[in-house]
Amino acid sequence: xxxxxxxxxxLGQEELLFLLNLLQASTTLxxxxxxxxxxxxxxxxxxxxxxxxxxxxRGFIRPNGRDSYIMxxxxxxxxxxxxxxxxxxxxDIVKPETKLSIFWHGTEHLSVEHSIIFPGIHKFRALAAPExxxxxLSEHLPIPSGGKLPMMSVKKMNRDVYIQxxxxxxxxxxxxxxxxxxxxxxxxxxxxxxxxxxxxxxTTYTIGFIRHARPEQVSSIRGGALIISSVGCCIVESLxxxxxxxxxxxxxxxxxxxxxxxxxxxxxxxx
Length: 271
What we know:
Layout: E1 8-12, H1 13-22, H2 41-58, E2 61-63, E3 69-71, H3 73-83, E4 87-95, E5 98-106, E6 111-118, E7 121-127, H4 132-140, E8 155-158, H5 159-170, H6 174-182, H7 188-199, E9 201-211, E10 220-229, E11 233-239, E12 247-252, H8 255-269
Helix pairs in contact: 5-6, 5-7, 6-7
């Protein structure tokens, strides 16, 4: 490591795989585990050896006998948190011709931001305090202040129905998308507004909150999407609880509504 207190660093895909192997973790979110699939055994051995030397030169690991290494405490803490977190938050940001994925992994003691800044280049950042996580979320998930609140009602529907109508709207088949909504109990005015919001999407933020399995508990997931368009902003919330079934809720969104939705789910995932 360059400095003992440096809590932000980048890793190439091969370097990250090397460290994951030291941690006895097969993979983590956002990494392609089969990067060596085109190489034979000898070529893989050479590639791994070169990667190990690069990590030694960077100060991320140091030799500890033959084919054995000790990891520096900073990458051990940050990458280790990403492999065995208590909770995970995943964000996909989709704009025309652009897509970005960001992951936050946390335990009781540390939260880590993991992003892919270029293909094959992973950035890890330790968050200094618990209150820094909502700040980072708000930086990556903005909503235009004073943005339009679309004239639509809150509507609960089957997830598959919504996906069918959404995909038709994305492919510019507005009449067909409206018909799917209408046939499933959505009022005509709301159906037209939903379709206009989807077709006019300028940015879509999809976010998932995962509480990983704990003793006597199974993993739990919440999430949804924020669609920002010229017509207005809309939250599509996924309902994952068993008693609510395979449903989503579509609702108009303002700056405050989106902020409150994020904070409520953030509090839930960190419980």
